[in-house]
Structure formats: structure tokens, C-alpha cells
Amino acid sequence: MNLVRLASPRFLASGLALASGLAVAAPLHANNCIQSYAECLVRAADLQTWWQRSAAGIDCYLDTVACVRRAYA
Amino acid sequence: MGAALLGLSMSAVSLSLLADGSQRPVGEYGGRSVTPTEIRVLDASVPAIVRIDRTTLAASALLLSSADAPVDPYGFAEPGDGTFWVLGGRGRFVYRFSAATGELVETRTLADPGQGIATLWDRVGIVAVRIQPGERLLLRLENGAFVPFSPLLSRPAPEITARLIRNLLRSGSGTSNEIPLWYTAGPARVFLLGRQGRTRSIPVPTFATPPRSSAQDPEPEAVLTYPVRDAFLREDGLWILSNQEGNRTPLESGASRARHAVLLRTGRPNRVVPLDREGRALLDADPRGLVVLFADGVVSRVALP
């Protein structure tokens, strides 16, 4: 798995678009985790360096895994 | 030996029975194992390993201490090395805690973050977080490294969050030959993992009905169901705890969840046991019935009707 690639600025831009769109498109039950993911990516995109954004992007994804896992498991 | 006993006495906490004789020892359920004499449950909220006597259901807690990040409720492993292996930091780390004292003895950083950890007989298994489709989900510790173990692959989905939801894989209690695995979201199906890593898939009953799809709601996760919450395999059959019941997914208002346990046996009709409230996990099973952890934290026996 290449989490760093996901957290690149390019990923963050597309991820923001995806997550923001999903917050509308996804069913109600998933919205809390997905909305948090979108907000997390916004915060990550504001960081100064590529490495900071990468690390923050990974955190966003793993936080979302935890959120969804807690919700449905 | 003396030091170990002292440590145990300092870190173990007895838990008292409720008035009705049942136990409420578990805060945030994080997985379980069963030994010949006791049920062990990870309570990630403390964190602690709750030890429940299989006969009396009397419980005590072994506190897990000194980890520098929160323990994840993603299961735990006991590979027989005198430690509990627990994930922490949202799957970034593996912590090893002494089974005698609960003290942290080692922290490892995972190259592939984990969404689950379990004992695969005498070894540690990890379910990796996957984003891309077609990646091996289950890893096993061999010669100090986690390597792919079974053919189970991450499943495709059109975008990242749907992929995340579709690739949540969980494991239950197994036997000396097979361990049940299932995807949290998707068809009602359990994979029985063999000791060589192969799996066989068996359909299981579901109480979930898919929501009606509409043109306004074309996302695949909108039509996913969450049929299985837990599985407990015995030599004489497979117990399933339902998850979603009806057409409302678990977090929707008015959703009904985990109100049935079902015993599947080859060549015999399924045996359905209704639960009077939401179940969280199947902690033990024998021919007379089940020990169930309910969502309210109570542990109690449920007799077969």
C-alpha cells in the first residue's frame, strides 16, 4: 500500500473533492466519518511542507478507518 | 516468579457481579480469545484484558500500561510468547504487553497499518489497511516480518471511502483447523481460513435487507448491508451474531442491530436464538448455549431455547 501517494498534494485536492462530494452522496450513516475525513483533509492541505501534508493525510485516512470500523463492526 | 506474581497482584482488578448475577466488565469491546478455563476480552477504554472464568463468569482485569498512544479496539493476539499483542495509534503500532504484569515490553511500527490483529494458531496475524484493490489483506508474522498469508484480496470500489468500507475485514473465534473471517460490509458470507492460508466461503443467514436503491442514491455503499457482527466456530458448528437487521444500517435512527445468534451445522437446520437486546460479541459457546457480551457491557449466559 502506498499511503504516502494518497497524501500527496494531488491526492489531497482530489480527496477533498471526493470527500466533499461523498458527504452529500453517501447515506446518512456514513456522513459523520466522511465529513470528518473531508475536514481533516482541509486541515492537512493547509500545512506548509509536503512531508507534513503527507503525514497528516495518512492520519486522516487511518482516523477514518477507525471511525468507520467503530461504527459498523 | 515472585516478581511476576507481585506485578499481577498490582495490576489485576477484581470486578464484582451485578445484582442479577451478570457481569458488566467491558467498556469498549476490542476482541476476545478463549482458553480452556477463561475468556479474555480486550477493553480498549481502560485499557485492560478482562479475564472471565468460563464456569462462573467471575471477572478480573489485567491493566495494560505504559503505551504512549491509545490502544485500538482492533483485536489482540496471544502467540504463546507470554505477551498480548495489541494495535495502537490507529493501527500504526503493535504493542506487546506482558501477560503476567500488563506492562509494555515492546513497541513495533508497522509498515502496513493494521485494521485488525488476531492469533492465527501459534502466530500473529494482521489485517492490513488497504486502499488499492487486489492487495493481500491478511498478513502473518514469519521470521520477524509480516508477510501475506491468505489469498483474500482487497475489493474494488469506485472511490476511496467506498473502498475503505468494503475492505473492513474481521475475524472471530476459531478451532484448531479453521478461523472465521468476514467482510463487515457486503454479502452474508463467512470465510473459513485454514492453517495453510486457504479459505472456503460459506453463506450465512442474514437479518439485513438492502435499502432500496434509487437514481438519486447510486453510490455502492448506499446499498451495502452489514450482516455479521461476530462469529464463533466450534467443531460442531458455526455461531453467527447478526449485525444489521432490517433495512436500516447500524447508525441510522431506528436501526435494529445484533438481536439474533444463529448456529449453523452441516446437514441440520439452523438454530436461531433471539437476544432481548443488542449483542456485541459471542464470548463462548457450548452445547447448552452461549455467553454473550451485550452492547451495554453486560456479560451473561443465553440458554438455547
Describe this structure in words.
The complex is a heterodimer of chains A (73) and B (305). Chain A has one domain (3-72). Chain A is built from 4 helices and no strands. Chain A has helices at 3-6, 9-25, 31-45, 50-72. The two termini of chain A are 23 Å apart. The model of chain A is unreliable at 1-29 (pLDDT under 50). Chain B has 305 residues and is mainly beta. Chain B has a domain at 168-305: Beta Barrel (Lipocalin), CATH 2.40.128. Helices cover 6% and strands 47% of the residues of chain B. Chain B has 2 helices and 26 strands. Chain B has helices spanning 2-11, 160-166; strands at 12-15, 29-34, 38-43, 48-53, 59-63, 71-77, 83-88, 93-98, 104-109, 114-120, 123-128, 138-142, 145-148, 169-171, 178-183, 189-194, 199-203, 228-234, 237-242, 244-245, 256-257, 260-265, 268-274, 279-286, 289-294, 299-303. In chain B, the strands form 7 sheets. Chain B has a 5-stranded antiparallel sheet with strand order 1-5-4-3-2. A 4-stranded antiparallel sheet of chain B has the order 6-7-8-9, with no helix packed on it. Chain B has a 4-stranded antiparallel sheet with strand order 10-11-12-13, with no helix packed on it. In chain B, a hairpin with a 5-residue loop joins strand 6 (71-77) and strand 7 (83-88). The longest helix of chain B is centred in the first third of the chain and has 10 residues, at 2-11. Chain A binds chain B through residues 1-3, 6, 15, 18-19, 22, 25-30, 32-34, 37, 59, 61-66, 68-73, and chain B through 72-74, 90-92, 112-113, 115, 128-132, 135, 159-161, 164-165, 168, 170, 184-185, 211, 217-219, 221-222, 226, 229, 243, 249-252.
